[in-house]
Amino acid sequence: MPRTPLLILLALLAACDKPQTHEWQGYIEGEYVMLASPYAGQLQKLYVRRGEQVAAGKPLFALEQESERAARTEAEERMKSAQAKLENVKAPRRPPEIAALREQLNQAKAALELSSAALTREEELFTRGFSSKARRDDARTARERDAAKVKEAEAQLKNAQMPLGREGERESALAEMAAAKAALAQAAWRLEQKSVAAPASGLVQDTFFVEGEWVPAGRPVASILPPGNVKARFYVPESVVGAIQIGRPVEIRCDGCPAPIAAQVSFVSAQAEYTPPVLYSKDSRAKLSFLVEARPQPADAAKLRPGQPIDVTLK
Question: What would the pLDDT profile of 250-270 be if each residue is shown by its tens digit?
Fold first, then answer.
């Protein structure tokens, strides 16, 4: 055999034995966090601009808050009133009231002493025959009446000196206090919803309103892209998808990237993409493709941009 055809044949055999490289094209996608207030209002302050990096907790925007501030102030005053009422119910009666009840008790005791003396005198006269049985019974009834008044006055004085003496009023004051706390918490929450801060560090992708515009309830004012929300999307053929599991490492290459970026597979589609609902022959199986997603580390994700074309290789 001539030498040149032999070399060509050896080159073809070497090419057939060379393992195939699993590399596929894809693109970068970002999961944006759309930030909005559940309440409508005029946009008073926009603290960020698109393209700016923000830290978690940094204020992004604030809507007008006059109505919510007034509602919170009203709730605070109602809270103070309920607190004062509860303290008043818990405390004993005021000193003048206690003094008045003590005087009533002294008067009842004095009346009891007088009726007791009258009963003693009537019993002695009845025994000696100088008084009737009716007068003795009247004196005994008067003494029992005055003794009951002494017990009543003692109970009233004791009840006024006890903090928990007015149990019904105390329960009512506690219920009013709980309602005031709930109203204050609701007013404070509504006020907080008019100011929105960044839930995570990231890039301000866009802003949708300018200061002075009216923002409807639930309409996003800004969107941010945290590094952890950046992912690579690519499609693999049916012959390879079985070898790709969640957590498998891959490498991402892009134009302008100085070095490959490591990532891990985070999602593998269970269904083929862009395929007709028919039975597949062995020839048509090669046309099936499955969506795969991989996420790089947040530090590496900052080097990538949504929409950027990439090449993905299995490690």
Answer: 999 988 888 999 999 999 998
Closest CA to 62 of 222, 244, 291, 176: 222
Rounded CA gap, 91 and 87, in Å? 6
| E strand or H helix that includes residue 231 | strand 230-237
Tokens 């509504």 belong to 190
Q: What is the total residue count of the chain?
A: 315
| Cα separation values, 151 from 57, 147, 244, Å | 67, 6, 90
Structure tokens at 155: 């109970």
Q: Do the Cβ atoms of 273 and 235 come closer than 8 Å? A: yes
Residue 171 CB: number of other CB atoms within 10 A?
11
Check if the beta carbon of residue 230 is closer than 8 Å to that of residue 283: no
The residues near 24 (Cβ < 8 Å, ≥ 6 apart) are: 234, 235, 236, 311, 312
Residue entry with tokens 């604030």 = 62
Q: How many C-beta atoms surround the C-beta of residue 71 within 10 A?
A: 18
The encoded tokens of residue 136 equal 């003795």
Alpha carbon distance 293, 308 (integer Å): 14
Structure pTM? 0.60
- Cβ–Cβ under 8 Å, residues 282 and 224: no
pLDDT in tens, 46-99: 999 999 999 999 999 999 999 899 999 999 998 998 888 887 776 666 677 778
